[in-house]
Amino acid sequence: LAVTILMLLMLLEESLNPAFVFMIVQSLILVMYYTWEDCIPCVDDSEGVECPESRALQGFSNSGVLTVGILFVVAKGIEMSSVLKYFIKYVLRKPANLLDAQARLLFPVLAFSAFLNNTPVVAMMIPVIGNWAVQCRLNASYLLMPLSYAAIMGGTCSLIGTSSNVIISGLVDDDPYSVTYFPDGVGFFTISIVGVPAALAGLVYIFIFSRILLPGDDRNEKKQDEVDGDEHIYEEFQDKESRRGSQEETGRGS
Protein backbone atom coordinates (compact mmCIF):
# COMPACT_ATOMS: atom_id res chain seq x y z
CA LEU A 1 0.00 0.00 0.00
CA ALA A 2 2.81 2.42 0.82
CA VAL A 3 4.51 1.73 -2.52
CA THR A 4 1.22 2.31 -4.37
CA ILE A 5 0.68 5.65 -2.63
CA LEU A 6 4.27 6.63 -3.41
CA MET A 7 3.75 5.77 -7.07
CA LEU A 8 0.58 7.90 -7.28
CA LEU A 9 2.33 10.87 -5.68
CA MET A 10 5.24 10.58 -8.09
CA LEU A 11 2.88 10.38 -11.07
CA LEU A 12 1.15 13.55 -9.90
CA GLU A 13 4.52 15.29 -10.23
CA GLU A 14 4.33 15.95 -13.96
CA SER A 15 8.04 16.70 -14.23
CA LEU A 16 8.88 13.01 -13.68
CA ASN A 17 8.83 10.58 -16.58
CA PRO A 18 6.17 7.86 -16.00
CA ALA A 19 8.59 5.18 -17.23
CA PHE A 20 11.13 6.34 -14.64
CA VAL A 21 8.45 6.23 -11.91
CA PHE A 22 7.40 2.67 -12.73
CA MET A 23 11.04 1.57 -12.87
CA ILE A 24 11.59 2.93 -9.35
CA VAL A 25 8.42 1.26 -8.06
CA GLN A 26 9.34 -2.11 -9.55
CA SER A 27 12.83 -1.85 -8.10
CA LEU A 28 11.38 -1.12 -4.65
CA ILE A 29 9.08 -4.13 -4.90
CA LEU A 30 11.99 -6.41 -5.80
CA VAL A 31 14.10 -5.05 -2.94
CA MET A 32 11.25 -5.52 -0.49
CA TYR A 33 10.59 -9.04 -1.76
CA TYR A 34 14.15 -10.26 -1.27
CA THR A 35 14.73 -8.26 1.93
CA TRP A 36 11.54 -9.19 3.76
CA GLU A 37 10.85 -12.51 2.08
CA ASP A 38 9.57 -14.04 5.32
CA CYS A 39 6.89 -11.37 5.59
CA ILE A 40 5.38 -12.30 2.20
CA PRO A 41 2.79 -15.07 2.50
CA CYS A 42 3.49 -18.14 0.43
CA VAL A 43 1.22 -21.17 0.40
CA ASP A 44 2.93 -24.47 -0.10
CA ASP A 45 2.37 -26.28 -3.40
CA SER A 46 1.09 -29.30 -1.50
CA GLU A 47 -2.07 -27.33 -0.73
CA GLY A 48 -2.77 -26.85 -4.41
CA VAL A 49 -1.86 -23.17 -4.58
CA GLU A 50 1.15 -21.87 -6.44
CA CYS A 51 3.76 -19.83 -4.62
CA PRO A 52 4.32 -16.19 -5.66
CA GLU A 53 7.67 -17.12 -7.24
CA SER A 54 5.98 -19.31 -9.84
CA ARG A 55 3.34 -16.69 -10.55
CA ALA A 56 5.64 -13.69 -10.85
CA LEU A 57 6.05 -13.96 -14.63
CA GLN A 58 2.81 -15.76 -15.36
CA GLY A 59 1.22 -12.65 -16.86
CA PHE A 60 3.79 -12.52 -19.66
CA SER A 61 2.51 -15.85 -20.97
CA ASN A 62 -1.04 -14.53 -21.17
CA SER A 63 -2.33 -14.49 -24.74
CA GLY A 64 -3.85 -11.06 -24.19
CA VAL A 65 -0.51 -9.49 -23.32
CA LEU A 66 1.13 -11.08 -26.36
CA THR A 67 -1.70 -9.91 -28.63
CA VAL A 68 -1.37 -6.31 -27.46
CA GLY A 69 2.39 -6.41 -28.04
CA ILE A 70 1.95 -7.75 -31.57
CA LEU A 71 -0.62 -5.06 -32.39
CA PHE A 72 1.89 -2.38 -31.36
CA VAL A 73 4.32 -3.81 -33.92
CA VAL A 74 1.60 -3.76 -36.60
CA ALA A 75 0.75 -0.13 -35.77
CA LYS A 76 4.41 0.88 -36.01
CA GLY A 77 4.62 -0.75 -39.43
CA ILE A 78 1.59 1.23 -40.58
CA GLU A 79 3.12 4.43 -39.22
CA MET A 80 6.38 3.85 -41.12
CA SER A 81 4.57 3.06 -44.37
CA SER A 82 2.82 5.52 -46.69
CA VAL A 83 -0.68 4.62 -45.49
CA LEU A 84 -1.00 7.75 -43.36
CA LYS A 85 -0.01 9.94 -46.32
CA TYR A 86 -2.86 8.51 -48.38
CA PHE A 87 -5.16 8.91 -45.38
CA ILE A 88 -4.39 12.63 -45.20
CA LYS A 89 -4.56 13.11 -48.96
CA TYR A 90 -7.75 11.23 -49.78
CA VAL A 91 -9.71 11.09 -46.49
CA LEU A 92 -8.90 14.16 -44.40
CA ARG A 93 -8.12 16.60 -47.22
CA LYS A 94 -9.37 20.18 -46.71
CA PRO A 95 -12.46 20.29 -44.46
CA ALA A 96 -15.13 22.93 -44.93
CA ASN A 97 -15.63 23.53 -41.20
CA LEU A 98 -15.00 22.00 -37.78
CA LEU A 99 -17.90 19.53 -38.00
CA ASP A 100 -16.66 18.33 -41.39
CA ALA A 101 -13.13 17.94 -39.99
CA GLN A 102 -14.34 15.93 -37.00
CA ALA A 103 -16.47 13.67 -39.21
CA ARG A 104 -13.56 13.03 -41.60
CA LEU A 105 -11.32 12.17 -38.66
CA LEU A 106 -13.46 10.36 -36.09
CA PHE A 107 -15.29 7.83 -38.26
CA PRO A 108 -12.06 6.34 -39.71
CA VAL A 109 -10.41 6.37 -36.26
CA LEU A 110 -13.44 4.55 -34.85
CA ALA A 111 -13.07 1.87 -37.52
CA PHE A 112 -9.29 1.60 -37.11
CA SER A 113 -9.59 1.17 -33.35
CA ALA A 114 -12.02 -1.73 -33.75
CA PHE A 115 -9.53 -3.80 -35.76
CA LEU A 116 -6.26 -2.38 -34.44
CA ASN A 117 -5.63 -1.73 -30.76
CA ASN A 118 -6.75 1.80 -29.87
CA THR A 119 -3.58 2.76 -27.98
CA PRO A 120 -1.19 2.56 -30.98
CA VAL A 121 -3.87 4.17 -33.17
CA VAL A 122 -3.84 7.29 -30.98
CA ALA A 123 -0.05 7.25 -30.74
CA MET A 124 0.46 7.25 -34.51
CA MET A 125 -2.35 9.74 -35.25
CA ILE A 126 -1.42 12.51 -32.79
CA PRO A 127 1.46 14.04 -34.82
CA VAL A 128 -0.51 13.68 -38.05
CA ILE A 129 -3.57 15.45 -36.66
CA GLY A 130 -1.45 18.16 -35.05
CA ASN A 131 0.11 19.13 -38.39
CA TRP A 132 -3.23 18.81 -40.19
CA ALA A 133 -4.89 21.16 -37.68
CA VAL A 134 -2.21 23.79 -38.28
CA GLN A 135 -2.59 23.54 -42.06
CA CYS A 136 -6.39 23.82 -41.86
CA ARG A 137 -6.36 26.64 -39.27
CA LEU A 138 -8.33 24.53 -36.79
CA ASN A 139 -8.01 24.42 -33.03
CA ALA A 140 -6.14 21.25 -32.14
CA SER A 141 -8.13 20.88 -28.90
CA TYR A 142 -11.28 20.30 -30.97
CA LEU A 143 -9.59 17.37 -32.74
CA LEU A 144 -7.13 15.70 -30.36
CA MET A 145 -9.52 15.12 -27.45
CA PRO A 146 -12.27 13.74 -29.75
CA LEU A 147 -9.57 11.59 -31.37
CA SER A 148 -8.84 9.96 -28.02
CA TYR A 149 -12.50 9.42 -27.20
CA ALA A 150 -13.27 8.00 -30.65
CA ALA A 151 -10.40 5.53 -30.30
CA ILE A 152 -11.66 4.47 -26.86
CA MET A 153 -15.19 3.95 -28.16
CA GLY A 154 -13.91 2.12 -31.23
CA GLY A 155 -12.01 -0.22 -28.95
CA THR A 156 -15.30 -1.38 -27.44
CA CYS A 157 -16.57 -2.62 -30.80
CA SER A 158 -14.43 -5.75 -31.10
CA LEU A 159 -12.38 -8.18 -29.09
CA ILE A 160 -8.95 -6.77 -29.98
CA GLY A 161 -10.01 -3.12 -29.95
CA THR A 162 -8.58 -2.51 -26.51
CA SER A 163 -6.19 -4.43 -24.31
CA SER A 164 -8.70 -4.89 -21.48
CA ASN A 165 -11.02 -6.83 -23.79
CA VAL A 166 -8.23 -9.20 -24.79
CA ILE A 167 -7.12 -9.78 -21.21
CA ILE A 168 -10.68 -10.39 -20.00
CA SER A 169 -11.18 -12.84 -22.85
CA GLY A 170 -8.14 -14.76 -21.63
CA LEU A 171 -9.51 -14.81 -18.09
CA VAL A 172 -12.85 -16.09 -19.37
CA ASP A 173 -11.13 -18.89 -21.27
CA ASP A 174 -9.26 -19.92 -18.11
CA ASP A 175 -12.35 -19.84 -15.90
CA PRO A 176 -14.17 -23.21 -15.88
CA TYR A 177 -17.43 -21.57 -14.76
CA SER A 178 -17.58 -19.19 -17.75
CA VAL A 179 -18.67 -22.01 -20.07
CA THR A 180 -22.21 -21.45 -18.80
CA TYR A 181 -22.34 -17.97 -20.34
CA PHE A 182 -19.70 -18.31 -23.07
CA PRO A 183 -19.68 -21.94 -24.23
CA ASP A 184 -17.56 -21.07 -27.28
CA GLY A 185 -15.51 -18.38 -25.56
CA VAL A 186 -15.66 -14.66 -26.25
CA GLY A 187 -16.02 -14.15 -30.00
CA PHE A 188 -14.47 -11.36 -32.04
CA PHE A 189 -17.77 -9.44 -32.31
CA THR A 190 -19.45 -10.66 -29.13
CA ILE A 191 -19.35 -7.21 -27.54
CA SER A 192 -20.23 -5.38 -30.77
CA ILE A 193 -23.94 -5.55 -30.03
CA VAL A 194 -23.31 -3.14 -27.16
CA GLY A 195 -20.15 -1.40 -28.34
CA VAL A 196 -21.26 -0.20 -31.79
CA PRO A 197 -24.47 1.61 -30.68
CA ALA A 198 -22.61 3.13 -27.73
CA ALA A 199 -19.79 4.31 -30.01
CA LEU A 200 -22.16 5.92 -32.51
CA ALA A 201 -24.04 7.66 -29.70
CA GLY A 202 -20.72 8.91 -28.35
CA LEU A 203 -19.76 10.38 -31.72
CA VAL A 204 -23.06 12.25 -31.92
CA TYR A 205 -22.38 13.66 -28.45
CA ILE A 206 -18.90 14.77 -29.53
CA PHE A 207 -20.24 16.49 -32.66
CA ILE A 208 -22.80 18.43 -30.62
CA PHE A 209 -20.94 19.35 -27.44
CA SER A 210 -17.24 19.43 -28.35
CA ARG A 211 -17.30 23.09 -29.35
CA ILE A 212 -19.11 23.96 -26.10
CA LEU A 213 -17.15 21.87 -23.60
CA LEU A 214 -13.64 21.85 -25.04
CA PRO A 215 -11.45 24.93 -24.54
CA GLY A 216 -10.74 27.04 -27.59
CA ASP A 217 -7.13 27.56 -28.59
CA ASP A 218 -5.99 29.79 -31.42
CA ARG A 219 -2.32 28.79 -31.30
CA ASN A 220 -2.62 26.86 -34.56
CA GLU A 221 -4.03 29.90 -36.31
CA LYS A 222 -1.13 31.99 -34.97
CA LYS A 223 1.35 29.36 -36.16
CA GLN A 224 -0.18 29.36 -39.62
CA ASP A 225 -0.12 33.18 -39.69
CA GLU A 226 3.58 33.07 -38.79
CA VAL A 227 4.22 30.56 -41.58
CA ASP A 228 2.28 32.70 -44.07
CA GLY A 229 4.20 35.79 -42.93
CA ASP A 230 7.55 34.07 -43.34
CA GLU A 231 6.57 32.88 -46.81
CA HIS A 232 5.48 36.42 -47.76
CA ILE A 233 8.79 37.88 -46.56
CA TYR A 234 10.71 35.21 -48.46
CA GLU A 235 8.75 35.95 -51.65
CA GLU A 236 9.47 39.68 -51.32
CA PHE A 237 13.16 38.91 -50.79
CA GLN A 238 13.19 36.77 -53.93
CA ASP A 239 11.49 39.53 -55.94
CA LYS A 240 14.04 42.10 -54.79
CA GLU A 241 16.94 39.79 -55.60
CA SER A 242 15.55 39.05 -59.05
CA ARG A 243 15.02 42.76 -59.79
CA ARG A 244 18.53 43.56 -58.57
CA GLY A 245 19.95 40.81 -60.77
CA SER A 246 18.08 42.06 -63.83
CA GLN A 247 19.27 45.64 -63.21
CA GLU A 248 22.89 44.48 -62.94
CA GLU A 249 22.59 42.55 -66.19
CA THR A 250 21.05 45.60 -67.89
CA GLY A 251 23.91 47.81 -66.63
CA ARG A 252 26.51 45.38 -67.93
CA GLY A 253 24.83 45.18 -71.29
CA SER A 254 24.77 48.96 -71.67
TrEMBL record:
The keyword Membrane is annotated on this UniProt entry:
yes
For this UniProt record, the keywords arranged alphabetically read as follows: Membrane, Repeat, Transmembrane, Transmembrane helix, Transport
What's a Pfam family this protein contains? Answer: CitMHS
What membrane topology is annotated for this entry? Multi-pass membrane protein
Q: Which GO terms describe its cellular component?
A: plasma membrane
Which residue intervals define the domain Citrate transporter-like in the entry? Answer: 9-221
Q: Where are the transmembrane segments?
A: 16-36, 147-168, 188-214
Q: Which cellular compartments is it found in?
A: Membrane
Ranges where the record places region Disordered: 219-254
Identify the domain of life: Eukaryota
One GO-annotated biological process of the protein: transmembrane transport
What PANTHER family does the annotation carry?
BASIC AMINO ACID ANTIPORTER YFCC-RELATED
Descriptive protein name: Citrate transporter-like domain-containing protein
Species name for this entry?
Answer: Paramoeba aestuarina
